[in-house]
């Protein structure tokens, strides 16, 4: 069985902890969806200049506009074929912040040459970036983003470094607790840290033929440009 993540990582995939291998084998071949539930110990923001960008992004389920501690969290990784026939895996994260839940949506597809994963962000997939996956010696996973691109109608332009952010995700498995640990940091090359969160969650797996893709999980608009 070959997931989009195993395809791009090749032999490096085998260096991941077995629990991470299963989590990132979610796909149409495996027939499994993964649902995580846990707590983010901390959601943080950079300086005050970040707030307007977070507020705008939140209107399209991109980033999270509020900071907090001990925030209940869920993540839904469900595979499906999008309207262009591409295998897609959802990364829909929901943070139960006081007063209102906030979502951070992404859908991942295999690049057209099979050498990269494309990460489409938000409800309308206006932002896209390449993701680079690597296994660490301890079996953990590191994901780093490449350049971001903005797409809307005929517009297809790179996001300037001055307003963009480089994302790094580190995910590991704690055998003692039976939980995944995750740390996310988004940093601007000029202004420093912008946004991030860290915490842990437990995961369960379901047959995607039985659970399907629930209403509201897929984006409102799908982007075909790679």
Task: Characterise this structure.
The chain has four helices and 14 strands. Strand 3 and strand 4 form a beta hairpin. The mean pLDDT is 93. Helix content is 11%, strand content 50%. It is mainly beta and 226 residues long.
Q: Give the proportion of residues in helices.
A: 10-25%
Largest sheet: 14 strands, antiparallel
| Strand segment count | 14
Overall 3D form: globular
Question: Which structural category do the helix and sheet elements fall into?
Answer: mainly beta
Distance between the termini: 24 Å
Instruction: Point out poorly predicted stretches.
Output: none
Radius of gyration, in Å, reads 17 Å
Percent of residues in beta strands: over 45%
What quaternary form is this?
single chain
């Amino acid at each position: 069985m070959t997931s989009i993540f195993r395809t791009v990582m090749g032999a490096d995939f085998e260096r991941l902890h077995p629990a991470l291998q299963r989590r990132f084998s979610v796909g149409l071949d495996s027939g499994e969806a993964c649902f995580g539930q846990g707590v983010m110990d901390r959601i943080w923001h950079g300086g005050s200049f970040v707030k307007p960008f977070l507020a705008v992004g939140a209107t399209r389920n991109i980033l999270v506009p509020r900071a907090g501690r001990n925030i209940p969290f869920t993540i839904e990784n469900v595979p499906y074929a999008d309207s262009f026939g591409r295998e897609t895996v959802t990364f829909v994260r929901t943070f139960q912040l006081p007063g209102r839940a906030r979502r951070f949506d992404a859908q991942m597809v295999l690049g057209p040459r099979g050498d990269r994963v494309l990460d489409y962000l938000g409800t309308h997939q206006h932002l896209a970036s390449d993701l680079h996956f690597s296994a660490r010696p301890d079996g953990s996973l590191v994901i780093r983003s490449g350049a971001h691109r903005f797409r809307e109608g005929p517009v297809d332009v790179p996001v300037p470094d001055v307003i963009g952010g480089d994302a790094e995700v580190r995910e590991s498995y704690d055998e003692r607790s039976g939980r995944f640990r995750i740390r996310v940091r988004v940093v601007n090359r000029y202004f420093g840290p912008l946004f991030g969160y860290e915490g842990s969650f437990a995961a369960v797996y379901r047959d995607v033929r039985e659970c399907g893709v629930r209403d509201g999980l897929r984006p409102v608009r799908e982007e075909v440009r790679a």
